[in-house]
Amino acid sequence: MGERVLLIGVYGMELVECGGALAANVAAGGESFATLMLCRERMRADVRKAAGVLGVQEPDFLGFRNGYVAVDEEHKRALVRVIRTVRPSIVITQDPEHSLADLDPDRRPAMTLILEALGLASREFAADDGLEPHPVPTIYYMTPSRPNCVVNIAPHWEQKCSAMDMLESQMEFSGRHWSEALAPGDAEALVPGFAEIGSDLERGRAVHRALDRAVHIYHGIGHHGHYTFAEAYRREGDFHLPTLVR
What we know:
Blueprint lengths: L3 E6 L4 H4 L1 H9 L3 E6 L4 H14 L5 E2 L11 H14 L3 E5 L1 H6 L5 H14 L17 E5 L6 E4 L4 H9 L2 H14 L2 H7 L9 H20 L10 E6 L11
Parallel strand pairs: 1-2, 1-4, 2-3, 4-5
Antiparallel strand pairs: 5-7, 6-7
């Protein structure tokens, strides 16, 4: 049975990075939602296309300013409103440990803001918004430093890859970056025929496909797991089980 799953992301690509779990939830009869704090105007059309591939509801773009994310009333109200409107049973968001050392701007204040909003959504904060408080749901941290569970995404692997392909502005940026950052021999080892690929867009797609495949195999069958491709997560708090499970 599916859940109401809400991704609270900082940047647009996070929607695809946990796209396997979001797609699996939809396939199980649930609804998957996404709200993104910082997403460039050009990127938004790409993210909408990716969401359509994954079966995610129309993404909500909060329009925060790069470099100015703050743990203040305005930003808290915006996130609390999303949580109370969607009323998720599960929230997926960035990993606090990983975001602490991440040099992407805004990740550190964004993480504190997200945790504050999750706590405040069930309390009397911003009661004048006209929405009923919503209790803190189950939280999963994506791409964690220390995962404690994985999700089978093998049935949704090609769906996830197709969604990543939709992020054309990101793929172009990645293609330029890796063309400059990788030695020719290293690029060729990663993607055979890399030098012959004719555009930054296709170079970015090819490298992302190779990297994503490696990462998801590593967390799946590469760890002697039950799944060929798996997304790694860390669930906040203990697992509460009526009986032991395999």
